[in-house]
Fold these 3 entries.
Entry 1:
Amino acid sequence: MTYIALMKVLAAVPALVLAVLLAQAPARTRTPRGRADAGDGPILLGTDPPGKLRPSPPAPADAGVAQRDAGPDEVHRELQALRARLDTLEQELAASRQTSQQLQQLTSVVEQLRQQVADAEAERQAELQQRQSQRAAVQSAVDALYTAQQQLQGGNASIDAELDQAQAAFTGQARRQVQAARNALRNRDLAGARALLGAAISDAQAGR
């Protein structure tokens, strides 16, 4: 091959290569998408370069509780109100029970005091009635001794009934005076007996 022919061949090579490349370019653009292009691989979004994606920070474990506590719904608020009302009622009930026990104790004390007052009043009434009866008996015995004195003044010594009545009603010195008058009658000392009956009347009226 001559030098001129060689230069012609070399000059034609770039054009041939360019023609081959142009012929192959449309074939590559029409090549069907393979499995790798079908979207099975990971799709990277955002501005992070591949291999340097930053994962989202994990949510704290009590995030749900904090969210619920931060803003209770209507049911939660009603539950809280009911619990507060229940606590108040329980406190009122405990105070009421304590007050009821104190009231029962006070009522028992009052009943005991009432009974004591009633017993004391009954005893006072009994004593009063006894004193009234005693005074009435003494006055009746005194009247009987006045009658006995009149009988002795008339010479009648039959006054045993009057003397028995006086001795039953009188106490102390008055009773002893009646007993002395009885002894004087046994000695038929009517004047002495009459004087002793006068002394018994004075002692009985004075409460002696």
Entry 2:
Amino acid sequence: MFTGIVEEKGTVKYVSLAGISGKIAIKARKVMEGAKIGDSIAVNGVCLTVVSMQSDGFTADVMAETIRRTSLGQCQPGDHVNLERAMAADGRFGGHIVAGHIDGTGTVRSVVPEGNAIWVTIGAPKEILRYIVEKGSIAIDGISLTVAYVDDSAFKVSVIPHTGEETTLLSKKTGDIVNLENDIVGKYVEKLMGLGPAGPRSSGEAAESSSGQQEQGLTMEYLRDMGF
């Protein structure tokens, strides 16, 4: 598990893809302190396992699902990436719960200064936007950020100078792709309460209304069945 507090910016040494999977090598310093083979390190928000270590970084396998869901396959040698080690049990929880499991990608629409902060607008598909709420949390390329605005096609975050300096976000340009991970709490609530598209219920089936049509989600009948 991660918190979305980026520890350092690493540099891509190479990405070697053979078909639909491959390896990525990252030049890093801070995240290598105490690291060992088998450890998890988030690279632009993607949880990767260290499979080999070098004096100046590490190498990780990249599977097909990672290539499909994230922007890692587009990385080029010399690109900077956000790095974070898995959270230590005695560490401070500075961000929010970040699993390192990317839900999909978004596209940078604009980067606009306002005072000492920068507004970044990200366009995203509806299946990702459904879990984003104003003043909730979102991980963008592994950075824990607070959502300041959301509509049916995009959301906005306001980035302070420190975050801009310590991460890669403000180096992005209009049209660039970023990795997005929704707050996992919302997804669990949706699943357990039967609020999602699948509408799971205690019996595994959707409720049927008086008109004979199936209803999905949170209903009075469902609450009675659950003892409320």
Entry 3:
Amino acid sequence: MSSGYEYPEVFARFYDVIYDQIRSETDHDYFLKKILAAKGPVLEVGVGTGRFFIEALSKGADIYGIDISPSMIDVLKRKLPKKEHHRVSMQDVCKLKSDKKYNLIIAPFRVFMHLLTVEKQLQALEKVYTHLNPGGTFIFDLFVPNLAMLAEGVYNMNDFDGEYEPGKKLQRFTSMTADPVNQISLVTFTFVWQEGDEGISHTWNTELRFFFRYELEHLLYRSEFKDYYIYGDFSGHGLTKDSKEFVVVCKR
């Protein structure tokens, strides 16, 4: 068992096959379009195994990526020719150092929710702001808290049931309990897969910080970003009582 937000090797190994099925339909086209329209350097925070990065680079984007997890970076670098390895580095966004300024910085798929404290959230916003060109954009997304789910929890939900290679079965089960005072979701992922004739399982625990709308607005107000808007989905609609996503677009 491993814990934290440095993704373990098993998570990195199966990341592409799982999230291509359960997430890419939601956000892939949105972020890819934003990257390709940036017309200048782009930084992806939490680049992971390259769910956006690989395709964007192949289509001519001047894209760079950072991630705090060596296991995820290792998978991404195996997909890249060596001449492109300089585009990817292992870094914490709260301590971001780059000799470049970017037209666009993105932190897709809940990356910001790994920042559990206000101090770290503000540090990340400050580092991003500093590394944007004037007129540049920062985009990140969070889930809108489901109060019933937070109260009841989730127990062994089978959110992926398929194959990671032809004929090799993979399942993932997710459980979640919430700490409402500290606004933390305690999440457990259990992977069960075939390795030859053997069945293997691995469990990983992590924590995610959930946000409410006006708390998020107050956080942004404390940052250097003064021009921002929070959308309710990846189609550009405003927030409503039925929104499931916070899509936050900040302009420098």
